[in-house]
Amino acid sequence: MSLFIASLNSGSNGNCYYIGNDTEAILVDAGISCRETELRMARLGLSIQQVKAVFISHEHWDHIRGLPVLAKKYHLPVYITPQTMQQAGLYGKRLTTLPFQAHQPIQIGGLQITAFPKLHDAADPHSFIVSYNDVTVGILTDIGTCCDNVVEYFKKCQAVFLESNFDEVMLDKGGYPAYLKKRIRSMYGHLSNDQALELFRTCKSSDLTHVLLSHLSKNNNNPLLAKALFEAHAGDTEVIIASRDEPTAVFKISGSSVLI
């Protein structure tokens, strides 16, 4: 009774996360092209025929770019809030869309998906947990601050895609204009390595087996730096970088998680 998870891509150039059991799966966000989604899933040995729905966290382009083609080609229902739908400009795209309510679980086969509000500079942003029997995986990215919702749901997870977007020193010394640095650091921007680490260090469950550091900035972070920072506090939790250039491996999340 396990969940299988993989990041197909994670970063400002596109985000797409796979979570499934033996018979069905969902995607959270569809920010890479349909063709690239197909290629990356095939490379990992994942069947796109098992994908039963797409859940959209918010309207930014790096989360919806591949959605219209993917959803139409595979006749996938898209779970999305009306505000996100409006801001994404998806009305008139002839998609099968279904709304979701915060904190109200949705059942997709054996998978239970629960959305919750977060702070981010979008119309109606949400993050998700996906549960199957006694296993729960969180997809916690594009978060400006660790609000009560983030803390509550993070504590439930055996594995989590956790944003670790920027290093404070690199952002300070980098070439971004002041207004953009302020936006990134704001409570509606992104989590820094230090903010993500504080959540991880103080709130992780004793059975959190995998943390996949996600949405790393190309210009304001270093994967090796972020990974080393977390590994110093990880104990038995495996730390993986979710790349902006390629998919991760597929991980099997259960009582004792293993890479497959």
Automatic annotation (TrEMBL):
SMART domains associated with the record: Lactamase_B
InterPro entries, per database record: Metallo-B-lactamas, RibonucZ/Hydroxyglut_hydro, WalJ/YycJ-like
Domain (Metallo-beta-lactamase) ranges: 13-215
Name of the molecule in the record: MBL fold metallo-hydrolase
